[in-house]
Amino acid sequence: MIEECLAVEVRVSGDDCPLAEATAATRTRVRAEPPQLRADGNVLLRFGAARDDDLAARLDADDRIRYLHRSRADGRDTYRCLSKHPCVVHELVSAGLLVEDVVYRDGDAAVTGAVVGHEVLRGVMETAGETVGVRLGRTYPLREESEPVTGRFGLTPPQAEAVRAAVAAGYFSVPREATSEEVAAELGLSKSAFLERIRRAEATLYGELFGE
After folding, report:
1. Is 137 buried (19+), middle (13-18) or exposed (0-12) by CB count in 10 A?
2. N or C, which terminus of the chain has less Cβ within 10 Å?
């Protein structure tokens, strides 16, 4: 049995997949679940974004997108569809990357996942080196108690998304680099909804840290 599992962060730029092109055109931030590749080469996608009719219209008009469905709740849109255009992420999956989280923004994608062992990591690195616009970021060992990216530390997906956006914007920096209103707007939420998610996330995280 292989003892070590490594977390991997990959940046993808210049991909011509529908989500990358749509976020480049609309400046919308999209968080996607790992794509599901079908035997016929088509891809099943589930992803979410702040409410944006322009994003929905662009995806609906894209001939590579089929069976697009949009549902709305809590100020956000959740999409499900079939894509006839596999993205660069699938090359990394074929090399051994277990994808756990994908965020598209301004046409680029931040992919977080894991690989089992250094041999698989070398294969992923070689694939990244051979693929235009793919750059490996951090790699680090996962501790035995580590949780998957989705649902890490008991956070709900909306709470985890709020914390990630707050960290990226500098909301927790000293001095603070972004206000709650600015981060909430980035997420397509009201200020009160954002602060509620942050407070609940903090309560969960502090409970995990201090055993409460």
Report:
1. exposed
2. N
What pTM value is reported for the model?
A: 0.67
- For 45-83, what is each residue's pLDDT tens digit? 999 888 889 999 999 999 999 999 999 886 789 999 999
Distance between CA 74 and CA 39 in Å, rounded? 35
Return contacts of 13-17, CB within 8 angstroms, 24+ apart.
Answer: 13/107, 13/108, 13/109, 13/133, 13/134, 13/135, 14/107, 14/132, 14/133, 15/87, 15/88, 15/107, 15/109, 15/133, 16/85, 17/83, 17/85, 17/86, 17/87, 17/88
Burial group, residue 78, by CB count within 10 angstroms (0-12, 13-18, 19+)? middle
**Do residues 30 and 19 touch, judged by C-beta distance below 8 A?**
yes
CB 45, CB 80: distance < 8 Å: yes
The closest of 102, 152, 162 to 171, measured between CA atoms, is: 162
